[in-house]
Write a structure and sequence with these properties.
The chain has helices at 13-24, 68-78, 92-97, 99-120, 153-172, 194-206, 227-239, 256-266, 295-301, 309-325, 336-341, 345-348; strands at residues 4-8, 28-33, 58-62, 82-85, 125-131, 176-181, 184-185, 213-215, 221-222, 225-226, 246-248, 254-255, 275-277. By secondary structure, it is of the alpha/beta class. The chain has two domains: 4-184 and 226-248, NAD(P)-binding Rossmann-like Domain (Rossmann fold), CATH 3.40.50; 190-223 and 253-289 and 307-348, UDP-galactose 4-epimerase, domain 1 (Alpha-Beta Complex), CATH 3.90.25.10. The structure holds NADP nicotinamide-adenine-dinucleotide phosphate and guanosine-5'-diphosphate-alpha-D-mannose (GDD).
Length: 349
């Protein structure tokens, strides 16, 4: 019997990789999408199956984490074996501009979904997309037991979601887990997160379409991994014998300045010639350094990150250079062979 999964945030970076992974594993996949005046399914268009075709295994449903009644209806109809709650207003800087909206979707959205599970009377395993932003001001290395100190409305909203997921596990004996994921990136990364902003700029500069890149705090340190590997980790958490929370990270930190250097180098450019400071990209409170300790995931799930930031920058720059030549019409993924061929993991680890 194939399993059924319900993914919120299926149109996002992680949702698209997770949907791919689950379809590959034979799952029937249901995704929640928001109604928008333009198409917002670019990252999953290649997975789309005509619902009139017999055996189509991907179904999309309109809905929103702000609409609890809709979630109850959907869960009653779908009766999923697994739920992956990836939907969120996920941009930290934007959360300072839209704190209430962020609280409503990223925080309260999670309890709406958990309550919908109870009201629909279904018994799925539940994955909550928690984040290294929970650690915020606490210095690295950060692991499952590190004290949490969020530094943004986004981090505070995710803190609520983290605790309510734990609470439902303890109160109602639900198989509900938090994946505490450190930053993970890919050619499908949202264009305003720092890595993708940089790699897109590199491609535009190389093509002669841009001559400056304006950045905020380039001294910040992040633990950047490769998103498809993290989707695999999410799935493994729901296959475990016991519901437990896990950190997923590479264990290696680099600064934004380092990422600039890796990315410009990948296109044969010197970053110092193009990058300028603009205070509009600073945050009222910053998270200075995130670097995770993924030991528990390695020991209990057999999960380990393989791609580190220098290679990740090359993967993303190559994809953005290719996309430039295609007039930015499609997401370009780098084939697995290319990734293996450029791997420097053993040296950098
Ligand atoms: P993303 O690309 O920004 O995707 C967010 C998804 O949430 C999109 O599908 C978006 O839909 C959907 N969404 C937003 N508001 C919604 C609402 N009110 N109702 C329903 N859907 C809504 O984020 P991501 O990078 O894939 O991250 C996935 C999850 O992991 C997020 O919860 C994020 O906070 C968390 N996380 C990410 C990282 C990371 O480094 N990527 C690390 C730790 C945790 P539209 O496409 O319509 O906008
Ligand atoms: N976005 C952005 N734009 N960030 C910049 C810029 C800029 O121009 N200049 C410097 N930065 C710095 C930010 O201040 C931050 O310290 C770092 O680059 C990374 O910023 P983002 O890529 O926007 O990601 P984030 O770390 O704030 O949040 C991401 O990772 C979290 C996990 O740690 C998001 O994906 C969150 O949803 C996720 O939870």
């Amino acid at each position: 019997m194939s399993k059924t999964a319900f993914i919120t945030g299926i149109t996002g970076q992680d949702g698209s990789y997770l949907a791919e992974l689950l379809l590959d594993k034979g799952y029937e996949v249901h995704g929640l999408i928001r109604r928008a005046s333009t198409f917002n399914t670019k990252r999953i268009d290649h997975l789309y199956e005509d619902p009139h075709e017999k055996g189509a295994r991907l179904t999309l449903h309109y809905g929103d984490l702000s609409d609890g009644a809709r979630l109850v209806t959907l869960l009653s109809e779908i009766n999923p074996d697994e739920i992956y709650n990836l939907a969120a207003q996920s941009h930290v800087r934007v959360s300072f501009d839209e704190p209430v909206h962020t609280a409503n979707t990223t925080g309260v959205g999670t309890i709406r979904l958990l309550e919908a599970v109870r009201q629909a009377g279904v018994m799925p395993r539940f994955y909550q997309a928690s984040t290294s932003e929970l650690f915020g001001a606490t210095p690295p290395p950060q692991g499952e037991d590190t004290p949490m100190y969020p530094r943004s409305p986004y981090g505070a909203a995710k803190m609520y979601a983290y605790w309510i997921t734990k609470n439902y596990r303890e109160a109602y004996d639900m198989f509900a887990v938090n994946g505490i994921l450190f930053n993970h990136e890919s050619p499908r990364r949202g264009e305003t997160f720092v890595t993708r902003k940089i790699t897109r700029a590199v491609a535009a500069i190389k093509a002669g379409q841009q001559d400056k890149l304006y950045m905020g705090n380039i001294d910040a340190i992040r633990d950047w991994g490769y998103a498809p590997e993290y989707a695999e980790g999410m799935w493994r958490m729901l296959q475990a014998d016991e519901p437990e929370d896990f950190v997923l990270a590479t264990g290696v930190g680099y600064s934004v300045r380092d990422f600039l250097q890796f990315s410009f180098e990948a296109a044969g450019l010197e970053w110092e010639k193009y990058v300028e400071f603009d205070e509009r990209y600073l945050r009222p409170t910053e998270v200075d350094a995130l670097m995770g300790d993924p030991t528990k995931a390695h020991e209990k799930l057999g999960w380990q990150a393989k791609v580190l930031a220098p290679q990740l920058a090359r993967i993303m720059v190559n994809a953005d250079l290719k996309q430039q030549t295609m007039n930015g019409q499609h997401y370009v993924d780098v084939p697995a062979d290319d990734i293996a061929a450029t791997s420097t993991h053993a040296v950098e680890r």
